[in-house]
Write a structure and sequence with these properties.
Layout lengths: L7 H59 L12 E11 L2 E11 L13 H83 L1
Antiparallel strand pairs: 1-2
Length: 199
C-alpha cells in the first residue's frame, strides 16, 4: 500500500471511493451470475447438438454402407453464406446461428444414383449442424473470457479495493483523532503555562 496522507481530503477521497466501489460491486456480481447462467445453458445446448450430430452421423454411416454406387456428393454442398445474427449478453455481442446458404448446383440425373438427392440433403443438414456447433463454441469462448474478466474485477473490488479503502479510512480517522487529542493537550499545557507565568 502506498504512503497515505492523513488529512481530511484523503478521508473524503477514500469515503467517496468506498461508496463507488460498494455501488459498482453488486452490478459486477449480477453480471457474473448472468454470464454463469448463460454459459451453463450454452454448454447444455452444445452437448445436445453434439449428441444429435453423432446420432445423425451413425444413421448416415448405416445408410451409406447399404448404397454401393459411388457418388461424390461433397461437391454439391459448398457453403455460399453463413447467416449469423448478433445478440448482446452481459455487454458483449455474441454471434447466433441463423441459417446456411449453399451454392446452387446440379448433377446429371442419368448418371447419379437414385439416392443422390437424399444424400445431398442429409449432407447439407450435417454441414449446417457442424457450423451451428462451431458458432455455439465461439459463443461459449467469448462468454467464458468475459466471465474470467468479470470474476477478476469482482475479486479486485471484494478482496482488494473495498478492504483497502476501509483500512485507509480507519488509519486516517485514528490519525485525525490523535491529532485532535494532541491539539487539546497542547492547548491545556499552554493555558497552564500562561496561568503559571501570571502568578
Amino acid at each position: 500500500m502506498a504512503a497515505i496522507q492523513l488529512t481530511k481530503n484523503e478521508l473524503k477521497k477514500q469515503r467517496d471511493s468506498l461508496v463507488l466501489f460498494s455501488r459498482y460491486l453488486p452490478t459486477l456480481q449480477l453480471k457474473k451470475q448472468q454470464l454463469q447462467t448463460v454459459l451453463r445453458r450454452i454448454s447444455e445446448e452444445l452437448e445436445n447438438k453434439r449428441m444429435k450430430l453423432e446420432d445423425d452421423l451413425e444413421e448416415i454411416d448405416e445408410w451409406v454402407s447399404v448404397m454401393g454406387e459411388p457418388f461424390e456428393f461433397e461437391n454439391y454442398i459448398v457453403v455460399k453464406e453463413v447467416k449469423v445474427k448478433s445478440v448482446s449478453i452481459g455487454g458483449i455481442q455474441l454471434p447466433v446461428f441463423d441459417s446456411v446458404v449453399f451454392e446452387k448446383s446440379s448433377y446429371d440425373l442419368f448418371t447419379a444414383p437414385l439416392w443422390a438427392d437424399s444424400a445431398i440433403d442429409k449432407a447439407k443438414h450435417l454441414k449446417s449442424q457442424i457450423i451451428e456447433i462451431d458458432i455455439l463454441k465461439k459463443q461459449y469462448d467469448l462468454l467464458h473470457e468475459e466471465l474470467t474478466v468479470t470474476t477478476q474485477r469482482v475479486n479486485l473490488f471484494e478482496k482488494v479495493k473495498i478492504p483497502q479503502a476501509k483500512e485507509i479510512i480507519r488509519r486516517v480517522q485514528i490519525a485525525m483523532a490523535d491529532q485532535q487529542t494532541a491539539a487539546v493537550v497542547r492547548g491545556k499545557i499552554s493555558k497552564r503555562k500562561f496561568y503559571e507565568k501570571k502568578l
